[in-house]
Design brief:
The structure is a single chain. This protein has one domain: Alpha/Beta hydrolase fold, catalytic domain (Rossmann fold, 3-Layer(aba) Sandwich), CATH 3.40.50.1820. 41% of the residues lie in helices and 16% in strands. It has twelve helices and eight strands. It has an eight-stranded mixed beta sheet, with helices on both faces. Strand 3 (27-31), helix 1 and strand 4 (53-58) form a beta-alpha-beta unit. The radius of gyration is 17 Å and the shape is globular. Residues 27-260 form the AB hydrolase-1 domain. It comes from Nocardiopsis metallicus. This is Pimeloyl-ACP methyl ester carboxylesterase. One of its GO terms (molecular function) is catalytic activity.
Length: 273
Amino acid sequence: MGVQEPTEVFTSTAGAVRWGAVGSGEPVVLLHGTPFSSYVWRDVAAALALRYRVYFWDMPGYGTSEMRSGQRVSLAAQGEVFAELLGHWGLESPRVVAHDFGGAVALRAHLLHRTAYSRLALVSPVALAPWGSPFFRLVGEHTEVFEQLPPALHRALVAEYVGSASAPGLGPGVVDRLVEPWTGAEGQAAFYRQIEQADQAHTDEIQGLYPGLDLPVLLAWGEQDAWIPPERTRELAAMIPGLVTCPIEGAGHLVQLDAPAQLTAALTDFLRG
């Protein structure tokens, strides 16, 4: 079963959100990270759709969703949008699987906006300070310089950055799909906009609440993650009571692309409960 592009549209407070759903059964919602889109979940989503109704979406300012000048795309904005989207879907307590930046979005929606989940799987989540790769922090400090790059240099920079999220390496077709939304005048501006609005305060605000998480939580990560050091993820694991951990050897930050079979197996066991 293939996973289609997110073609449905929901008008959120931060812009038009493209989303899709596949399969049937109890709901599972997938959240992507930055600078990615729902595309990174395509293989895992197809496997989970054999048992569940799988929802996937591109956050405002990402992928196929709306990108525009002045748009709110911060963690705070995305947490609000996710709460709105769950209401639009009519999902009261879905299973949630969230990667990278999406992990913080799911945590903020749950801890601050009181969205209920039956289970929460975090995959290499952005959750503890300090966060952001050295490249991410460099661009964030000099956004006004990087956003003036010629288009060809910008594309090469984004391709190199995206490729560094994988331990074994991404195929050229995959890299092209991940980079494409960030090209053109609109996409290039959106790429630097989401970095400019990245603010560690948005995880500082919830970090002290992690020990109070009162639901089943899985934490999975790649042991060769070059973006979020595995030792920091283990630090997060020590903060959440009753946590199930799943370190995956040979995978980098993009676990769902580096080791889709291992991650799907772990998710299947966890989501089934």
